[in-house]
Amino acid sequence: MTRQAKDKVLAAHDGAAFDRSYAKTAVDDHEDAVELFHNSSTQAKDADVRAFAQKTLPTLEHHLQMAHDLEKTTGAQAGH
After folding, report:
1. CA dist., res. 29 & res. 31, Å (int)
2. pTM of the model as a whole
């Protein structure tokens, strides 16, 4: 989903529905980022790129966990 499409979806909601949409978007985006950085940390041909991905991956994984926690508190997980 493009950033513009996500903005439209989020703008269409308010209150609890907005919170659930936001949480789901945060999880989806962080899952994509973790996958990208995980793959780069092991498969990138450039050593600097691999090192950056390896250094950054734990932070992204922590953010993904926080997004999952937000998803639970908003009830967005049920629709995931």
Report:
1. 5
2. 0.78
DSSP code for 79: G
Instruction: Tell me the per-residue pLDDT of 32-56, one tens digit each, with 9 for 90 and over.
Output: 999 999 999 999 999 999 999 999 9
Tokens 């903005």: give the residue: 7
Task: Pull the structure tokens for residue 22.
Answer: 């936001």
Q: Where are the domains of the chain?
A: 32-75
* Alpha carbon separation from 14 to 8, 29, 73, 78 (Å, rounded): 12, 21, 16, 19
Angle of the 3-11 helix axis to the 15-43 helix axis, nearest 10? 160
